[in-house]
Q: What sequence folds into this?
């Protein structure tokens, strides 16, 4: 494998050479490899087919989970979120201890205690983990689908960037059915506050329950804003905002 330093950007194959672009530049190697038909049929590639099948399962589940939380992840995710989520989902997959290799599923793995433990507390924005922002004073009741904030001391129990003047806190509840590839999501009311306040109290809840049956996921979202001439603006493109998978049931 060699690095291509030419003036013209090339991607694809030319004269038996394959050019491909990465974050570190454009690289070139000889085109070739085993034909797909052989990989899909030759017994010598059984393990390869198993790996391909499980990679596909993880990729589909990754996309489904990201879609279920929609615009929040597009706004506040970090640049490596998808790769970090993929790594977690492979751990979830390994918690399917009843299926054969190559047939293990996220739907089974996530239904186990070990699978839940893997995903609980996952920060979709690694730049702002929940543990570095909100320290105490909140209680999640998954049976009632509510989150209660009780006497959270601003600046100590809830930290915020120096430039922030306001914040919003909301709860997201989603049912994700990996076996069917569908989901249902809704958002709670929003608890707002000023960073120069003293304590925060409030309850996050939903107007009505979700209609889809299945495993429910609860995300806590904390957004910071800055007031300028009476208008509120998102702070630093969401770099400080928390999107945390609190728990699932």
A:
């Amino acid at each position: 494998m060699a690095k291509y330093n030419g003036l013209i950007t090339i991607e694809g194959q030319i004269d038996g050479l394959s050019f491909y672009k990465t974050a570190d530049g454009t690289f070139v190697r000889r085109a070739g490899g085993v034909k797909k038909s052989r990989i899909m049929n030759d017994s010598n590639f059984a393990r390869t087919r198993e790996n391909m099948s499980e990679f596909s399962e993880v990729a589909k589940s990754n996309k489904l989970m990201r879609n279920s939380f929609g615009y929040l992840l597009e706004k506040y995710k970090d640049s490596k979120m998808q790769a970090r989520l993929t790594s977690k989902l492979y751990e979830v997959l390994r918690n399917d201890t009843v299926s054969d290799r190559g047939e293990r599923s996220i739907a089974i793995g996530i239904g186990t205690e070990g699978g839940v433990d893997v995903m609980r507390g996952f920060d979709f924005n690694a730049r702002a983990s929940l543990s570095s922002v909100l320290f105490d004073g909140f209680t999640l009741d998954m049976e009632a689908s509510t989150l209660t904030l009780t006497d959270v001391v601003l600046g100590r129990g809830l930290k915020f960037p120096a430039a922030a003047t306001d914040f919003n806190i909301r709860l997201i509840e989603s049912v994700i059915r990996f076996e069917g590839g569908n989901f249902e999501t809704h958002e709670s009311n929003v608890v707002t506050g000023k960073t120069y306040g003293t304590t925060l109290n409030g309850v996050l809840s939903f107007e009505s329950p979700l209609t889809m049956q299945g495993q429910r996921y609860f995300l806590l979202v904390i957004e910071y804003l800055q007031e300028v001439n009476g208008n509120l603006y998102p702070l630093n493109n969401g770099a400080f905002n928390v999107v945390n998978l609190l728990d699932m049931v």
Notes: The first helix runs from residue 36 to 41.
